[in-house]
Amino acid sequence: MAEETLFTKIIKGEIPSEKVYRDEFVTAFKDINPKARHHILIVPNKPIPTVADIEPEDEKLIGHLFTVARKIAEDLGVNKSGYRLIFNCGPDGHQEVQHVHMHFLAGGDLGLGGFPEK
Fold first, then answer.
1. How far apart are CA 34 and CA 41, in angstroms?
2. pLDDT band at 108 (very low <50, low <70, confident <90, very high)
3. What is the mean pLDDT of residues 32-39?
4. Contact at 8 Å (CB) between 20 and 28?
């Protein structure tokens, strides 16, 4: 079993967060250090340390992260203007919390020149 992380504590409600979506499989909440106007972390409720630890039986769960991202984009009204989805994996990928999570970034031009002002 994976170690308890900041995200598992948020999922269990032990650490407060500004949740934007929750179901039995996924929790999504605002990043406390946002890099864009809308910076949301979409996290599977099942603790999986890194993308490298995803197993074949997790495919449906990981696919659900993308369905939730689409719903969040629609709710925020950015489904037409666009958004960015990012996974970081391991130390070289700058993964800070050892629990798979998708960064949802939106709210302005997210081109290679950087992120828009928040």
1. 10
2. confident
3. 94
4. yes
pLDDT over 60 (residue 113): no
The predicted pLDDT at position 111 comes to: 72
38 Cβ contact partners less than 8 Å away, ≥ 6 residues apart:
76, 78, 83, 104, 105, 106, 107
Residue 67 CB neighbours (<10 A): 12
What CATH number was assigned to the domain covering residues 6-106? 3.30.428.10
Of 54, 26, 53, the C-alpha closest to 42 is 26
pTM of the full predicted structure? 0.91
> Tokens at residue 71, please?
């719903």
Catalytic residues: 101
**What pLDDT is stored for residue 115 in this prediction?**
55
With helix as H, strand as E and coil as C, how does 35-101 read?
Answer: CCCEEEEEEECCCCCCHHHCCHHHHHHHHHHHHHHHHHHHHHCCCCCCEEEECCCCCCCCCCCCCCC
In the block, residue with structure tokens 């002002």: 117
Domain boundaries, given as residue ranges, for the chain: 6-106
Token pair recorded at residue 38:
């809308």
